[in-house]
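TL;DR need structure tokens for one chain.
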Amino acid sequence: MHTVASRANLHDLAGIADNVLPRPSVRQWVIFQWWDRRATDALRDAMHIDADAIREEIAKIKTRYPDMEILLAEAATREFLNWMVLSSGQVVTFASGPDEEFIIGNLLTDTVEEIAHHPVLDYEAMARGVPVTP
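>> reply
TL;DR here they are.
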């Protein structure tokens, strides 16, 4: 299960947990920190939440569901881990800044395998801090 946590819904996470986590089909819960990518200042002010606040809420939930795998996907560590498919079929990396968004293919002309092997997606190089822009 995936959920985006923001300032607007942090107080709802415990209720979501109680409603969903007891179900046998739920094996993992990934809580994504709300990301201000392309947000207006007003939206950012309303929604921004620090990862520490989410961690605190997760810790409370884990006391009631100790066997459930609950993960936090922090905005700062999600660089290049997500792709976004635009309505045109264009596939771009979903990073935190405009200088970190790269076009890596198009579903209308490229196979998923070709897109997945784009040089920008060299995760080992990124982990070492090596620039990978083709």
